Amino acid sequence: xxxxxxxxxxxxxxxxxxxxxxxxxxxxxxxxxxxxxxxxxxxxxxxxxxxxxxxxxxxxxxxxxxxxxxxxxxxxxxxxxxxxxxxxxxxxxxxxxxxxxxxxxxxxxxxxxxxxxxxxxxxxxxxxxxxxxxxxxxxxxxxxxxxxxxxxxxxxxxxxxxxxxxxxxxxxxxxxxxxxxxxxxxxxxxxxxxxxxxx
Length: 199
Ligand code: SF4
Ligand code: SF4
Fold this sequence. Notes:
Number of domains: 2
Mean pLDDT: 97
Helix content: 25-40%
Low-confidence stretches: none
Bound molecules: iron/sulfur cluster
């Protein structure tokens, strides 16, 4: 599960809420961009518990930041993968007994409020080839069916899916708020954070 400003994404939460576990073993993982997981892992474990999954393990992993590309460059790296492999082996062993998670998970409840980032996702009309891949992948239906240029920024969660899928690199973050925040955020989150695992 990705982390958006310390929470699991609202739409992902709503979709996961529809899935009932029937005591199926689950491993709760949040992945973040070397900033903070805040309450997200606590929230994911709680949600799986509420939906009758048997959470046997949990963890947080680090990837290259999806919005600020100067943070966590090259992550996950070989050190991350080695730690994930070690955790995975422990999960395989734990699946033999399906013993529930016992470790304390960081985070608070009530969870922090959702935040809507003020950054603009824009599209360069001169580069766009109107393939509509971005429209199809947008989880919020924030890009109109017929016009990939015209994004509804009230619906957009800045998830970056459209930016990553665009074959022409036509989509990007832009605007004064983004340009001002970028160096501040990248400086504040330059120190390496490590994956954390709980059994
Ligand atoms: S970043 Fe793109 S894909 Fe994600 S919600 Fe906004 S418009 Fe949709
Ligand atoms: S994915 Fe890129 S090229 Fe395709 S419609 Fe969207 S912005 Fe245009």
